[in-house]
């Protein structure tokens, strides 16, 4: 190659004038090779990309000044730099701070080791992918885009996290919730969990499938209007087989990404309840497999997921039964398995994971650490869990806050003492678009 090699790393999820400027400056230096981040590489330090790798690659290849596109499969630049040994590495000055700063230091040292040079053009002012993404979110999301977002997140990340939403207000909170960890990486929730427990409880009704699908869909619609995140719907037992097929069709049409159904029959009782009176009846493997098959046959796309929830450990039927059911449910077409437990130490969850990970046809594994909060996301990820759900924390927190506020007002005969613990009325008004 006569020209000097110029390596330009990019995520390029939303192409803007900043990207074009970087490419223009790079083309002056030589042959431009764009190291395009894979979906997994992007998701390791910020949100899952809107477009997948192949879509982004087609766009970048068509940009004037780009000679070649190669995949960069990690946030760390080292592997590609060692492989191609470019003369120049060109990156916008925005990586001087934030989640890529550590990678910057390593890249500079590597480039210097063979006499290469790092060029850092001034980051284009007034342009931000984060701000552009926020603007897109404010426009909303189409059902078919939301529908496929869960599978996309599962492909891009080893573990995704979700939290329950029982109202439009809770969905707004989840949509905006984001913190930076010690490495400057944004941490946010990947999906919403539409819990039957919290939906029923927020209506003052028992969690026995008394609140019907039509009423629960009203809650789903409230949430769809204010959130862009994918949704996993808690489908309880799925009711009778024909009813479950209709539920799948309705949820998929709305853009819900997945439904979880549990292998129980008869009057539903919540799995966290204890005592003989709370004991429920587990469905037969044959009948539950038939229900899974009916749900899969009813869906119209490959994006919708049916996740089978196993109650064997709750009912103390033993690990062998739980594993046998997992195998059977996957064979019946389940897209994922949820394993549930009441044990406080999480030990039987970890034991299940160890055996489940040996499955040749393993599907994504979901856990709900309500009763074993001692296990961190890192613990669960290391055990092989792919989906973690915080299933009822927001409703529990809101109950505590509302109760304390009511008692404070009764005690002090005014709201002054309680007011310091919650946002102002004006903040609530300003939170809702259109006020």
Notes on the protein architecture:
There is one protein chain. By secondary structure, this protein is α/β, with parallel strands linked by helices. The protein folds into three domains: 5-129, Rossmann fold; 140-391, TIM Barrel, CATH 3.20.20.60; 397-431, no CATH class. Helices cover 43% and strands 16% of the residues. Strands 6-9-10-11-14-15-16-17 form an eight-stranded parallel barrel, surrounded by eight helices. Helix 1 (17-27) links the parallel strand 1 (5-10) and strand 2 (31-37). The mean pLDDT is 90.
Question: What are the SSEs and their pairings?
Answer:
Elements: E1 5-10, H1 17-27, E2 31-37, H2 39-43, H3 53-61, E3 68-72, H4 78-84, E4 88-90, H5 101-113, E5 117-119, H6 129-139, H7 143-156, E6 160-164, H8 168-176, E7 178-180, E8 186-188, E9 191-194, H9 196-202, H10 213-224, E10 231-234, H11 241-254, E11 258-262, E12 264-265, E13 281-282, H12 285-298, E14 305-310, H13 319-331, E15 336-339, H14 347-356, E16 365-367, H15 377-383, E17 387-390, H16 393-412, H17 416-419, H18 425-431
Parallel strand pairs: 1-2, 1-4, 2-3, 4-5, 6-9, 6-17, 9-10, 10-11, 11-14, 14-15, 15-16, 16-17
Antiparallel strand pairs: 7-8, 12-13
Helix pairs in contact: 8-10, 11-12, 12-13, 13-14
């Amino acid at each position: 190659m006569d020209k000097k090699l110029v390596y330009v790393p990019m995520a390029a999820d939303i192409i803007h004038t900043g990207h074009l400027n970087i490419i223009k400056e790079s083309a002056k230096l030589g042959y431009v090779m764009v190291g395009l981040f894979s979906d997994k590489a992007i998701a390791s330090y910020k949100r899952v990309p809107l477009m997948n790798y192949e879509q982004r690659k087609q766009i970048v290849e068509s940009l004037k000044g780009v000679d070649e596109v190669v995949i960069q499969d990690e946030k760390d630049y080292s592997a590609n730099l060692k492989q191609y040994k470019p003369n120049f590495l060109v990156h916008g000055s925005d990586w001087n701070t934030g989640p890529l700063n550590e990678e910057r230091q390593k890249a500079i040292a590597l480039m210097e080791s063979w006499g290469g040079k790092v060029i850092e053009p001034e980051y284009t002012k007034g342009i931000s992918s984060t701000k552009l993404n926020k603007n897109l979110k404010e426009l909303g999301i189409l059902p078919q885009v939301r529908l496929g977002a869960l599978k996309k997140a599962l492909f891009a990340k080893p573990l995704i996290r979700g939290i329950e939403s029982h109202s439009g207000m809770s969905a707004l909170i989840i949509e905006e919730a984001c913190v930076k960890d010690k490495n400057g990486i944004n941490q946010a929730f990947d999906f919403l969990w539409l819990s039957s427990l919290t939906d029923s409880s927020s209506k003052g009704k028992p969690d026995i499938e008394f609140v019907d699908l039509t009423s629960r869909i009203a809650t789903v619609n409230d949430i769809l209007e204010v959130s862009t995140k994918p949704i996993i719907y808690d489908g309880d037992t799925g009711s009778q087989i024909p009813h479950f097929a209709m539920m799948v069709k309705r949820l998929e049409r709305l853009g819900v990404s997945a439904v979880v159904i549990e292998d129980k029959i008869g009057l539903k009782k919540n799995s966290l309840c204890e005592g003989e009176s709370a004991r429920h009846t587990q469905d037969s493997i044959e009948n539950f497999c038939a229900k899974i098959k009916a749900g899969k046959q009813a869906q119209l796309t490959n994006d919708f997921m049916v996740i089978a929830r196993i109650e064997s450990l709750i009912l103390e039927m033993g690990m062998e039964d739980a594993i046998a059911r997992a195998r059977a449910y996957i064979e019946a077409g389940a897209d994922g398995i949820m394993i549930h437990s009441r044990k406080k130490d999480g030990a039987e969850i970890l034991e299940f994971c160890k055996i489940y990970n040996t499955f040749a046809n393993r599907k994504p594994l979901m856990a709900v650490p309500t009763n074993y909060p001692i296990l961190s996301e890192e613990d669960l990820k290391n055990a092989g869990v792919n989906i973690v759900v915080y299933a009822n924390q927001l409703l529990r927190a809101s109950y505590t806050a509302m109760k304390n506020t009511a008692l404070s007002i009764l005690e002090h005969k005014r709201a002054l003492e309680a007011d310091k613990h919650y946002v102002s009325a004006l903040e609530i008004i300003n939170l809702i678009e259109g006020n």
